[in-house]
Amino acid sequence: CSTTDKVTVNGGLVGPSVRCEPTQRTAAYAEYALARNAIAFEALVGTDDRQGTGNAEVLVFGDGRELGKVAVGLGRAAPLRADVRGVLRLRIEVRTGDKDTAPDVVLGDAKLLGEAAGLDVIAAAR
Fold this sequence. Notes:
By secondary structure, the protein is mainly β. It has one helix at 116-124; strands at residues 2-4, 7-9, 12-14, 17-20, 28-33, 40-47, 55-62, 65-73, 78-83, 89-95, 105-113. Strands 1-4-11-6-9 form a five-stranded antiparallel β-sheet, with no helix packed on it. A four-stranded antiparallel β-sheet has the order 5-10-7-8, with no helix packed on it. The longest helix is centred in the C-terminal third of the chain and has 9 residues, at 116-124. The chain is globular.
């Protein structure tokens, strides 16, 4: 997974986002150290309108526990919100079973919510 500034999801432009490119055999993932300093993770999850037509599943884990899950595909986007209070490590995992039409999955306008001091600690650790 990597970051991107602009991408189109379900016909709409989204801002700073995380883009993941899963394959049929390998899940794509990103991990972030939160050090128990965030309250929630939010994103609009969908697929890049320009890449692949298949389906994918996005799972959010906090310290190994599943905190949220959403299924997406071309033209289908869904909001995702996960409670991350007390979480040390956040993992976002993207899976697909589609061989030839695997989509690029986008977590659009992805953001952490919390108190300013806690979010500053996370940003400083990057």
